[in-house]
Amino acid sequence: xxxxxxxHIEVTLIxxxxxxxxxxxxxxxxxxxxxxLNPGTSLYSAxxxxxxxxxxxxxxxxxSPQSDYLLWYKNSLFVAAVxxxxxxxxxxxxxxxxxxxxxVGRKTGLYLFLxxxxxxxxxxxxxxxxxxxxxxxxxxxxxxxxxxxxxQIPFNAWLVKGYFDTIPRELDEAAxxxxxxxxxxxxxxxxxxxxxxxxxxxxxxxxxxxxDFLLPSIVLRDPDKFTLAVGLFNFISDRxxxxxxxxxxxxxxxxxxxxxxxxxxxxxxISGLTAGGTKG
Length: 280
Known about the structure:
- Belongs to the binding-protein-dependent transport system permease family.
- This protein is an all-alpha fold.
- It has 12 helices and no strands.
- Helices cover 75% and strands 0% of the residues.
- The protein has 2 domains: 3-58; 65-275, MetI-like fold (Orthogonal Bundle).
């Protein structure tokens, strides 16, 4: 009986914790959605349940000549798509090399990847700024992409390398007996079997440019090259700015491409896991 009561208490505490976390996550989101539907532009006149809801703020973002929202959206989509594609490609190549080959410095390189993850990216901002200045890539979307692609390698390469280690080496040997070279094994054997982990890498690196503010605010100076995070910040950062409802509307729309990519990659993730679980 005592054990039964203990089990009930544990379950109750778990549900209470889940309910608390739901409120913590959902409350700001609900406020953002409701604020984007409130008339006017003031933060203090907005209410959680709008008396007269409107879509004027969403319309203003796309139609007003004072709004560069579509340009910022295009910049963010470009950076996110290129970052995701290049990150998956280079991460997979590096992880494949560390997983399948023996070379001088291999163990040191793996330890270096671990050590680099211990330091926050903020520590490297000055060095990154100087590097981009030397490469003449300041105030450039390609400079921003370069930092994103290079910065994700230590964590994701270790992650993908661990997944590649679970793929039997016998498949590599069988492919080489059939005449496949190094790249043949990589593209025809490893990449198809690694779809689940590559989908995770692609999703995380697609999301990063939409949510990152610090790095773009340092690298980009031209308003025509701003990403969404930097552009939306300018809505409310000016001394006399009062665009909180428009800021909320713009923030809500950021979720659209991320959700679409997640749903697209989820299909490949599930199919990859299913295929892997049913083979031999």
